[in-house]
Amino acid sequence: MSSIAAPRRLLLVEDNPLFVEQILGAIEQQAQKWAVHHVGEGLRALGLIAKNEQRFDLALIDLGLPDISGIEVIKACNKQFPDMPIVVISVMAAEPLVLRAIEAGAKGYILKGESVDEITQGIAQVMDGVYPLSPSLARFLFKKLAGEQDKPASVAELDFKLTPRELETLRFLSQGLTYEGVADQMGVALSTIQWNVRNLYRKLNVRSQVQAISKARDHDLI
Question: Whole-angstrom Cα distance, residue 126 to residue 177?
Fold first, then answer.
């Protein structure tokens, strides 16, 4: 008798009913079933996080909550479950706020202006270990984080063994292209770009697209 996989657990922190419905629509398009734990207030989210010993498979967190900042929720999530994927979904695109969210532990950032299909694809990418970042926000973050890194290491320490195709992928991503845009530019399948990104994360010892491009720029790889 074949066993049925348990549904994945989603923590959704969002106070707008219309956007909750949009997220649920995106979740329903996923191949695997999800159990959604939804709260509309930051303080309730903090309580839910504190009493859960089992980590969620994904947290989608709005920054503009009615009581406290979503950044506080991100910090609590990251402290309780350091390896849990956290993605911000918000109408707020202010660059300093985005940077604060990433510093607090967010791995990706999707603007609410994106379509249900784009959000669906973003969630699928996160579960595949690839974190999305809206192109409109990418340039600022890459420049900002690159400026805060330490000086480049010696040449011996820079042998990351990146392939030419991985470097090409990284260069296109640094220009703010989406994975689909990179695939079009390189004439390859989307799955190839996702594979390249996973290899980049591993070889550069980073956990997000922002960190990968920042580190590559620090070391004059791109």
Answer: 17
Alpha helices per DSSP H over the chain = 17-28, 42-51, 70-80, 95-104, 116-127, 135-148, 164-174, 179-186, 190-204, 209-218
Question: Given the structure tokens 């695109």, which residue do they identify?
Answer: 93
Direct distance between the N- and C-terminal alpha carbons of the chain, in angstroms, rounded to an integer: 52
Residues β-bridged to residue 11:
37, 59
pLDDT for 77 beyond 90: yes
Q: How far apart are CA 128 and CA 39, in angstroms?
A: 25
Q: What is the pLDDT of residues 152-180, one digit of tens each?
A: 443 333 467 788 888 889 888 888 888 88
Q: Tell the residue number behind the tokens 């379509």, with chain if given.
A: 115
Say what the alpha-carbon torsion angle 36, 41, 46, 51 is, to the nearest 10 degrees: -50
Q: What is the pLDDT of residues 5-38, one digit of tens each?
A: 788 999 999 998 888 988 898 888 888 889 999 9
Task: Specify the DSSP class assigned to residue 219.
Answer: T
Instruction: Give the span between the Cα atoms of 87 and 133, in whole angstroms.
Output: 9
Sheet with 58-61, side-by-side order of all strands: 34-39, 8-13, 58-61, 86-90, 108-111
Rounded to 5°, the CA angle 8-10-11 comes to: 155
The structure's pTM equals 0.63
